[in-house]
Amino acid sequence: MSATEWIEACEVDDIEEEDVIRFDRGDRTFAIYRTDKGDFHASDGFCTHEKFHLSNGLVIGGVIECPKHNGRFDIATGAAKRAPVCVDLKTYPVKVENGKVFIQI
């Protein structure tokens, strides 16, 4: 897979506003987010604190809250925003074409 290859992750309608879904590709897991403004973002799927899957978390504006210990990350940048998380999430470029969400991994 080349560095410029875009992978179809889901349909736009698969994610409600202020929500997150899980996307698995091979042995990797990602989280695909939709903000309250309709913007899409993607990150690694597991919290950097205790590897709990973020798709079970809560999206509030531009933040994902991990369901395990309520740590928070900025979904656009991956920045750790609230303890106990202190390591940022890796984020990925996202584009929307013809009603489909693609991520570059």
From TrEMBL:
- Keyword Iron included in the entry's annotation: yes
Q: What PANTHER family has UniProt attached to this entry?
A: FERREDOXIN-RELATED, RIESKE DOMAIN-CONTAINING PROTEIN
Could you tell me which InterPro entries the record lists for this protein? Answer: MocE_2FeS (IPR012747), Rieske_2Fe-2S (IPR017941), Rieske_2Fe-2S_sf (IPR036922)
Q: Which family does it belong to?
A: Belongs to the bacterial ring-hydroxylating dioxygenase ferredoxin component family.
Keyword Hydrolase present in the record's keywords: the answer is no
> What UniProt keywords apply to this chain's record, in alphabetical order?
2Fe-2S, Iron, Iron-sulfur, Metal-binding
Name the Pfam families for this protein.
Rieske
Cofactor(s), names only, from the UniProt record? [2Fe-2S] cluster
The cross-references to PROSITE patterns, in alphabetical order and at most eight, read: RIESKE
Where is the Rieske domain positioned along the sequence? Answer: 7-103
Show the taxonomic lineage.
Bacteria, Bacillati, Bacillota, Bacilli, Bacillales
Q: What is this protein called?
A: MocE family 2Fe-2S type ferredoxin
